[in-house]
Design brief:
By secondary structure, the chain is α+β, with helices and mostly antiparallel strands. It contains 1 helix and 2 strands; from the N terminus they run ββα.
Length: about 40
Amino acid sequence: MTVVIVHRGDKPVAAIGVRDELRPEVPDVVSVLASQASG
């Protein structure tokens, strides 16, 4: 989780937690992109 601090002026007014789940196809996509980048 990444925490984002929201400021208004010079004062922090909120903290928001952002979380993203990896999708099952991510390893295949990364492999394809890596092979394309290497030639």
